[in-house]
Every structure is written in C-alpha cells, then in structure tokens.
Amino acid sequence: MIYHAPKKLNDLSSVKAGLTYAKRERFNTSESIHGLNFGDNTSASIQVIKHNLGVLNDELDHNGKIALAEQVHGADVLVVNSPGYYPGVDGLVTSAAELLIAVKVADCAAILISDTKAGVIAAVHAGWRGAASGILHNAIRKMEGQGAAPKQMKCYISPCLSMKNFEIGEEVALRFPPTFINRNIGKKPHLNLKAFLEQELINAGVRKNSIDIDSRCTIDDISFYSFRRERDKAGRMLAFITQTDN
C-alpha cells in the first residue's frame, strides 16, 4: 500500500483514512523530489502534484473530489462541503459524504478525526505553532458546530517528530506546559508534541481510549518525508479522511 491505514478509523465502516508514505524508490524517480510528494510548497511542479493525487485516488478508488488545506502553520480551521484548495488554513471539517479532506505534513503531526454518529470528519495539521495556538480546540469546536460530540469521536495522531528529535528554543518551550518539555536530552529543551496533542483532545472531551497515536518518528523512519532530515529534498505526505453516507 502507498499509505498507512490507522486501525481505529478504518475499522469504522463508513470511514477511509490514511497517511501516505514517501515511496521514493517507486514514484517520480527522475524528479527533483523523489516519491509520492503532495507538497505544492516544494520544488515539485503542479503537474507532478496532480499526478500524485491521481495515484492516490486510484489507490482509494475515490471519485477525485478532494478538499486540501494550504498549510500555513496557523490555528484556523474551516468547514467545507465542496472540493478545492483552501488557502490560509491548517484544518478542514466536513459533514459531506464522498469528499476527501486532507492536510500536508513533513515532521508536523496530522490529526484525523471522525464522529460517525454525527457524520462529521476533520483533518488537521499541527506543528508546534498550531498546537500552541489551539488548533485542535478550534477543530473540535468546528466539529461540534456541525453536530459532532467529542465522546463519540475516534482520532488518529500521525507520525511526526519524536520528543528525542524535537529540539526547540526556550521561547517555544515557554508556550507549552512543563510536563510536555524534556530538559534532559540535550542542551536545549525537547517537545513531546504527540503527548501534548493527545492531552488537548482529552481536554476537549475525547475519550483516551478513542485516540490512536502512531509511535513512529519522521526523522528516524525514512519511509516518511522529514524536512529536518532532508531540507529542500523533503516532500510532503498527505493525511486524508473521507466518509460515505451513514
């Protein structure tokens, strides 16, 4: 498969969700960025990005209707009901059926959420900036506005920078509760982003046992793109979720 399918979400009969792998050895090997790159903010041409979206559509047997968030490292989340490219946001929420909503990541975390009883899904991009600014809180509130309830939600937190590799400055560390900051790994503080995001979901009312956290690190696992590891050669993975009619 060209993507990882998180079990908690894909066990839901009306939901299909995943995070693409880089697959550098299989796709676009003659391009400046090898692999299945979805980053329109990279050196890849728009033709390559469109081709890669087509590859994913074929893999999913999807209708091609995709709503894609720009990725600006902010905290804005938008409710959408139609396909398109949505600038200035890092999260999308929809109650529409057969619409695939997606965010791009490379070291930041993607959070995919579903409330099948309400028929509402969300895709969120969260680096330290978005996380510290409350993007998950905003996403949950937007979902509630569409009739969802946190206690009914199933969530997936994707691979991202692990704590041992997420070195930050003091100005960033001060934006997070001390319990999520490790000062024993190196000379600078390190952030446990996944644990912080999990707590944000719990604080919003999501049940702890409804949260699936992927333990893999994007720096350590070369099956993923990593901006910190690859810099300008890093593509972007796509984290996506779609639903059928309940």
Quick rundown:
This protein has a 6-stranded mixed sheet with strand order 1-2-14-7-3-5, with no helix packed on it. Strands 4-6-9-8-10-13 form a 6-stranded mixed sheet. It has 7 helices and 14 strands.
Q: What is the second-level CATH architecture?
A: 4-Layer Sandwich
Structural class: alpha/beta
pLDDT below 50 for ≥5 consecutive residues: which ranges? none
Look at the structure and give the mean pLDDT.
97
Proportion of strand residues: 15-25%
Distance between the termini: 26 Å
CATH class: Alpha Beta
CATH superfamily: CNF1/YfiH-like putative cysteine hydrolases
Description of the molecule:
The protein has 246 residues and is α/β, with parallel strands linked by helices. The chain has a single domain, classed as CNF1/YfiH-like putative cysteine hydrolases. The chain is built from seven helices and 14 strands. The strands form three sheets. A six-stranded mixed β-sheet has the order 1-2-14-7-3-5, with no helix packed on it. Strands 4-6-9-8-10-13 form a six-stranded mixed β-sheet. The longest helix is centred in the N-terminal third of the chain and has 15 residues, at 46-60. The radius of gyration is 17 Å and the shape is globular.
